Amino acid sequence: MTELAGQRFLVTGGAGFIGSEVCAQLCEAGAHVAILDNFSSGKLAYVEALPARIVRGEISDETITRLALKDCEIVIHLAALPYIPVSYIAPDEFFRVNSMGTVQLLWRAIQTESVERFVHISTSEVYGTARFTPITEEHPTMPHSTYAASKLAADRAVFTMHKEHDFPVTIIRPFNSYGPRITQPYIVPEIACQLLEGKGEITLGNTSASRDFTYVRDTARAVILASQEPNAIGETINVGTGKDITIRELAELMAQIMQVDLRIKIDVQRLRPFDVERLVASSDKARNILRWQPQVPLREGLELTVDWIRSHNFKYGHQGEPFREWINLWRSYNPRRKGAATVV
To answer: In angstroms, rounded to a whole number, what is the distance separating the alpha carbons of residues 229 and 330?
Structure first.
């Protein structure tokens, strides 16, 4: 992407999981990058070696966002509260950040004289459980979590403001991304961390659900391509591999890669109250408009992810049990949710 050299980007959430990969690719291509992050989950260590301007703050803060937007030509908006279980106990905060924060950021970008493009990162979660597969951009939207509802509200606002102000925007809907620079206890790092404990048993929730996993390097490349392609303006574009795998199958594959025995214990407390059972993408628009397709197969991506976790000695708190904290918090807000772990 040599044409990126010299272009001026603002990446919100740039120290996060996908954001840090986007920033790394942009910097490698010679772009000038500003990062806006409040570091609530993003990590300075993921971006401090990059030749980027780092602004610490909230996307809802007018002074901070105007400072971050100064002289930028393209905004890639990734900043969000992303972790679904937390949205059960902080629904107002998810709408404040994910919905209103997006509106405030886009409105300020529109008011600048420098910003020419705005790429909004949505989520496949807005579709809910697949009614048909693969999921196209025309699939009905039926969010199954407050997180997904807050992201869909942002999508709608972004598209409406694009029409109202004739301002160039693109909405990208990544399906489940995975890879290095982990910030949240998503399913791939959760399984890896539990397997690395060497107990021969891991604890999971809904193992029959299936997801379309895309390596983060491929996701970031699609996001950057969307910032450059004129035909992407005004479009909503899915980014995924077109192949899904159940959580049980994923755990079995990871155990095979890591050469460990596997026993899965189902804990009903980990079951989400309104879970999405299946997500699998149609990426025809990404292929046709962005000329994008995934390059990293699932097994290779998992091997790279596990290598990163091992080499960085990455662990969550609570002795490698990333869900314990939110389960206890959720229980405190939802005393009716009871149940014991079962072994299968």
So the answer is: 43
pLDDT greater than 50 at residue 340: no
Closest listed residue to residue 167, CA positions, set 223, 100, 237, 120: 120
CB 123 within 8 A of CB 175: no
Owner of token pair 């904290």: 325
CA distances (Å), origin 330, targets 39, 136, 322? 23, 33, 14
In whole angstroms, what is the distance from residue 292 CA to residue 310 CA?
Answer: 30
Under 8 Å between Cβ of 219 and 174: yes
The mean per-residue pLDDT over the stretch 284-313 comes to 97
* Tokens, residue 25: 């690719």
pLDDT for residue 1? 55
User: H helices then E strands: how many in the chain?
Assistant: 13, 14
Give the pLDDT mean for 276-296.
98
**Which pLDDT score is estimated for 71?**
97
| R_g of the chain, CA atoms, integer Å | 19
Instruction: Dump strand ranges (E) for 49-152.
Output: 52-56, 74-77, 117-121
Helix (H, G, I), strand (E, B) or coil at 318: helix
Per-residue pLDDT tens for 146-201?
A: 999 999 999 999 999 999 999 999 999 999 999 999 998 899 999 999 999 888 79
What is the length of the chain? 344
Cβ proximity of 218 and 295 under 8 Å: yes
Rounded (10°) angle between helices 298-311 and 187-196: 60
Contact 107/85 with Cβ under 8 angstroms?
A: no
Average of per-residue pLDDT across 63-92: 95
Taking a C-beta distance cutoff of 8 angstroms, is the pair 85, 326 a contact?
yes
- The domain limits of the chain are 2-343
CATH of 2-343, one of 3.30.420.40, 3.40.50.720, 2.40.50.100, 2.170.190.11: 3.40.50.720
**pLDDT band at residue 342 using 50, 70 and 90 as cut-offs:** very low
Comparing C-alpha atoms, which of 68, 58, 97, 67 is closest to residue 80? 97
